[in-house]
UniProtKB/TrEMBL annotation:
SUPFAM superfamilies: Ribokinase-like. GO terms for molecular function: kinase activity. It comes from Papaver atlanticum. Residues 45-60 have a biased composition (Low complexity). This is Carbohydrate kinase PfkB domain-containing protein. Residues 39-61 are annotated as: Disordered.
Length: 422
């Protein structure tokens, strides 16, 4: 039997994440810790969110007409400790700062999308513990609809320890999954139907792959596009990719999945293996990103070019002196071929990352999730790839200027991104 959470009091702030270690006995705030269980958000209206209202009502920026995004995946508590340098084995060191806030791929991406103006609906599972209540509180404060989240009476909510190295600006994650894990039977048919009602796009981080597959099957039946976050090979990823219209992945994934000799040839292989795929984006950190977009017109017989050579030519056109994200694309549809693999009709695009001054670069945790959240917005807004890639890179860059995955996520009125929304 599913126990669904309805809403959490909107007046509670994310400052409730003040506990140093996971413990179900620790309270987030008096207003949610005394005499309340998994039904504590009942009868709260999702339209009462003051932060989102004040952020968007003062803006004349147009919102996408169809802006409901449904996300399936992980939402956790992140314990972020910064250190001067990553410890050696058996070292004893001190942290230079500590921050506790919400995290998880899906939770981060939908928070980003909500701040940008989308109506974000999250499908996930937590336990009825202090961490779970804090996770819900923070999501709701950012305008994420959590009414389809499942809450188990017992068990533990997921959490992640993150060590941020101030010297190398890298982070190391130690994740503890939630228990009991989410299974499709946790979600009622009516909850699934209401989650997808009016949705423009569905997103999965493949963390809850069995549930995500059920959602993807229904979304496909309704012709709702699906974006899959292929961070790395996970259980159930292959099945979900068969439903994907869009894929965003890290640099290591395409070659690992296709066994192709290079990233460009791997992208060609992915589009050949996945006929429903409209585009695939590979994020490359401070080297930007590469995108392969399939041509919707299969009757074209364009010039055939080598995909690896095409990528090198595009990189040569990048202005190395520019500090803001830019996009370089092939001028027209070509037939991109990969030796020993095949060819597809489409366009190859190179997106650059923002050049962040060292003094402003704080933490890259969640930068990929920010990129995906912005990509979800761009799809809903109908942005062309030439506009989408710089926008997503700008949002990801903003997230790197603060500790944690969510602190630096911009609102749609932030001056750093408003030019992209005009």
């Amino acid at each position: 039997m599913m126990m669904s959470i309805t809403t959490v009091p909107r007046h509670l702030s994310s400052s409730s994440f003040l506990f140093p270690f996971p413990s179900s006995s620790l309270n987030f705030s008096n207003s949610i810790s005394k005499g309340r269980d998994c039904n504590f958000r009942k009868n709260m209206s999702s339209s009462s969110h003051p932060i989102q209202a004040s952020s968007t009502s003062s803006s004349s920026l147009p919102l996408p007409q169809d802006r409901i995004v449904v996300g399936v995946g992980g939402t956790v508590v992140d314990y972020l400790a910064t250190v001067d340098a990553f410890p050696n084995p058996d070292d004893k060191i001190r942290s230079t700062s500590l921050k506790v806030q919400g995290g998880g791929n899906a939770g981060n991406a939908l928070t980003c999308a909500a701040r940008l103006g989308l109506n974000s609906r999250l499908i996930s599972k937590l336990a009825n513990d202090a961490q779970g209540r804090g996770i819900l509180e923070e999501l709701e404060a950012d305008g994420v609809d959590t009414s389809r989240l499942v809450v188990s009476k017992d068990g533990n909510s997921p959490f992640t320890y993150i060590i941020v190295d101030n010297k190398t600006k890298t982070r190391t994650c130690i994740h503890t999954p939630g228990y009991p894990p989410m299974v499709p039977d946790d979600m009622t048919r009516s909850s699934l139907m209401s989650a997808l009602d009016g949705a423009r796009i569905v997103y999965s981080d493949v963390r809850l792959h069995e549930t995500a597959l059920v959602v993807a099957q229904e979304a496909s039946r309704r012709n709702i596009p699906i974006l899959v976050d292929a961070e790395k090979k996970r259980d159930g990823l292959d099945e979900l990719l068969n439903f994907a219209d869009y894929v965003v992945c890290t640099a290591k994934f395409p070659q690992a999945w296709t066994e192709a000799p290079s990233i460009p040839s791997a992208l060609v292989s992915m589009l050949m293996r996945l006929p429903n795929l409209k585009f695939v984006i590979v994020t490359l950190g401070d080297d930007g990103c590469v995108m392969l977009e399939r041509s919707p017109d299969g009757s074209l017989q364009p010039e055939e070019v080598d995909v690896d050579s095409s990528l090198q030519l595009l990189k040569q056109r990048v202005d190395g002196s520019s500090t803001i994200p830019t996009c370089i694309s092939s001028k027209s549809v070509v037939r991109l071929s990969a030796k020993g693999i095949g060819a597809v009709n489409g366009r190859l695009l190179v997106g650059t990352a923002e050049k962040i001054p060292p003094s402003e670069l704080i933490d890259t945790t969640g930068a990929g999730d920010a990129f995906i959240g912005a990509t979800l917005y761009a799809i809903c807004a109908g942005m062309p790839p030439e506009k989408m890639l710089p926008f997503a890179s700008q949002v990801a860059g903003a997230s790197c200027r603060a500790l944690g995955a969510r602190t630096g996520l911009p609102w749609r009125t932030d001056p750093c991104i408003t030019p992209h929304l005009l």
